[in-house]
Every structure is written in structure tokens, then in C-alpha cells.
Amino acid sequence: MSVTKGVCPLTMRQIVDEYFIENRTKLLDIAAFLDRIERSSDQEDPSKDFRLRVFRKALDILSEDGQSRVLRMQMLLSDPTTAPRTVLDQKSAKGAWDDQEAAR
Fold this sequence. Notes:
mainly alpha
């Protein structure tokens, strides 16, 4: 997969002025989600759920410097297999790739 490199026509200031509040809200949503997980009634180990493991890896990607965060995030969340499945595993999407299930 190739990455198209270009230059955004907006200045950094224009991007921040336009999109900061929207993304601030998303960060608050994520913080609230993580707080709810920690306060959940069953206190199960969050690392047992592959979606939460992937979520933590996604947060790491967001905190890294450099380009292609979107590409790395997309690859983290996507099913990398190319072989067709003989049967569907469930009706709805899982939202993340369970690499440990694939190893079984």
C-alpha cells in the first residue's frame, strides 16, 4: 500500500482554529470511555478483551511522532487476511482485528 505525501493547503493555525474543539470533544469521549471501563462492575482484566488491547495500541500510535498515523491505525484495526472465509463468524463487525484468535 502506498502513501501519498502532500502538503495541506491550510496553515497549522488554520487547522487548529477549525478542528481543535471537535477533536477536544473526541479526546474527552475517549477519556470517559476508559474511565467507565475502569469503573465497570465486574472489574475483569481489560487485557482479556482483544478490542481493548487494540484500543491501547491505537492510543500508542496517536502519541507517536511522525507521519502516517492514519495508515498505521487503519492497519491495526483491519483484518490482514486475504483468504475468503467459508462462513461468517458473526453478524456484526468486531471493529478490530483479533490477532490472537487468528493464531489459534
